[in-house]
Automatic annotation (TrEMBL):
Residues 1-17 form the signal peptide. This is FAD/NAD(P)-binding domain-containing protein. One of its GO terms (molecular function) is flavin adenine dinucleotide binding. Pfam families: Pyr_redox_2. One of its GO terms (cellular component) is cytoplasm. Residues 51-334 form the FAD/NAD(P)-binding domain. Keywords: Signal. The lineage of its organism: Eukaryota, Fungi, Dikarya, Ascomycota, Pezizomycotina. SUPFAM superfamilies: FAD/NAD(P)-binding domain. Gene3D superfamilies: 3.50.50.100. The keyword tRNA processing does not apply.
Length: 430
């Protein structure tokens, strides 16, 4: 009990610390702005603005953009160029749920409002994918345009080759909602469903399906000895119990031999066969660092994540103007998550504003276990909230009333009235 109280106390101290830190940084930047404004402009007049290029606008990149766009001094010669192929912000947390429940529109949050306060011309938004990066600039995939950068932020996150339920592998909201609807339809049609992968996405999807359609046979196949293996043993046991209570069969320490369904069956590596008329692949995600192989091959770790310094500059002293943040950055956490991605994005933002106003990028990101707090749903109306610091776990059960898992909260966070979408990226930015 004492250890649990200590965990709670330490959590509160950390959170208060972050709030104080953000407030302090705002003061520092304000002072720097005042100092710069009172001097004659130290930057020469330039025909072309200098670019701070941000690749990827999800939790890490979008918040980095917000900090930079709002905190650069008004007379700064820099502008922010955001390169992101998605028409909308993809809200990942709800994807397993919306593979089952028809609320798919809510997973796509309009871009723009977070950058509203920025001065005119400060932000350029490019709906494209970066194909390649080198020292001279970034190359866009379709238009082949080359965009030079003074600072570069790589916030390309992670991806699941299998797509849903971990990522939506298309760019427009129309295509994305269509994919989710197809998935809902396929799940509804199936009688024997096999879910592969017992991480959060697999556990949530399997329990949602069985809760919504108790008559279906649902089997969860996981290659490890426990589901939720990246978390503590207490959560692992509670998740397994949740699966059992709903009547899901969980097959541990087993892999599928192939993803092909043959004669209505799927074969595992042990030779065991399981009836299956639809398979949902919820296996792991990998850092999306491919575009960096030319510029910084040495900074890419075997997992694909980009090695960074505590300042989130990439681990290459020749490239001190290049930063990485979010899931794509190797910051030494077991469970990459949106909260740490967002905080890393802000650290990068603060560092670039400092560097772009003549200071040095001395803000650091220190991983904090409390950021890995997870709410794991176990069916449509139950969940477990869990935090752990690697030694002690703290968790409790909670009742879920909102079928869309507080998607509204995420919309509000991004400055958009839930669930209003006038489809206005172009209208809102530029
Ligand atoms: C099913 C699921 C549930 C989750 N639930 C939670 C949760 O409850 N709480 C939590 O904290 N975290 C949760 N997470 C984790 C969270 O989603 C990630 O940690 C977070 O999305 C990471 O944000 P990011 O900005 O680093 O990258 P991502 O969200 O991966 O986004 C990367 C962005 O970069 C863009 N991009 C990629 N390549 C290029 C390119 N070449 N050119 C231009 N743009 C590019 C992509 O289009 C994308 O918009 C969940 C994840 C999943 C899969
Ligand atoms: C799941 O997707 C991953 C990544 O694409 C792939 O390697 C794996 O074979 C797939 N598994 C199944 C059972 O389809």
């Amino acid at each position: 009990m004492f250890r649990k109280s200590a965990l709670i106390a330490s959590f509160i101290v950390h959170v208060l610390g972050f709030v104080g830190e953000a407030a302090w940084e705002t003061v520092v930047i304000k002072f720097r702005q005042i100092a710069l404004l009172s001097r004659t402009p130290r930057f020469p007049e330039l025909d072309e603005p200098r670019n701070i290029v941000i690749i990827g606008a999800s939790f890490a990149g979008y918040y980095a953009a917000q900090v930079i766009a709002s905190k650069l001094p008004p007379n700064s010669p820099y502008r922010v160029v955001i390169i992101e192929p998605h028409s909308h912000f993809h809200f990942t947390w709800v994807l397993p749920r919306f593979c089952v429940v028809d609320q798919e529109q809510k997973a796509f949050i309009p871009y723009g409002p977070l950058l509203k306060g920025a001065p005119e011309g400060r932000v350029r938004w490019v709906r494209e994918r970066v194909a390649k990066v080198n020292r001279n600039g970034v190359w866009l995939e379709k238009s082949r345009e080359q965009i030079p950068y003074d600072f570069l932020v790589v916030a390309t996150g992670s991806g699941a080759a299998a797509g849903l339920p971990s990522r939506v592998p298309v760019d427009t909201k129309e295509e994305g909602t269509a994919l989710l609807q197809d998935m809902q339809h396929n799940i509804k049609q199936a009688q024997h469903l096999v879910v592969v992968g017992g991480g959060a996405a697999g556990v949530e999807l399997a329990t949602d399906v069985k809760h919504m359609y108790p008559g279906k046979f649902v089997t969860l196949v996981h290659s490890r000895k426990a589901v939720m293996h990246r978390f503590g043993p207490e959560l692992q046991a509670a998740a397994l119990q949740g699966l059992k209570d709903l009547g899901i069969e969980t097959v541990l320490h087993e892999r599928t031999a192939s993803s092909n369904i043959v004669d209505g069956q799927i074969t595992l590596q042990s030779g065991r066969r399981i009836r299956c008329d639809f398979l949902v692949n919820c296996t792991g995600q990998r850092a999306t660092s491919g575009i960096m192989t030319e510029l910084a091959p040495e900074a890419i770790s075997p997992t694909g994540a980009i090695r960074v310094k505590p300042s989130l500059q990439i681990q290459d002293d020749k490239l001190s103007n290049v930063y990485a943040c979010g899931d794509v950055a190797d910051v030494g956490i077991d469970n990459p998550n949106a909260r740490s991605a967002l905080r890393q994005g802000m650290v990068v933002g603060f560092n670039i504003v400092r560097a772009a106003t003549g200071g040095s990028p001395t803000k650091t990101y220190k991983p904090f276990w409390g950021e890995c707090v997870i709410k794991l749903t176990l069916g449509l109306d139950k969940s477990i909230v869990h935090i752990g610091n690697g030694k002690t776990e703290l968790w409790w059960r909670s009742k879920e009333k909102d079928i869309s898992l507080d998607a509204a909260g995420a919309w509000n966070h991004l400055g958009v009235k839930p669930f209003q979408d006038d489809d206005g990226l172009e209208k809102q930015v530029e």
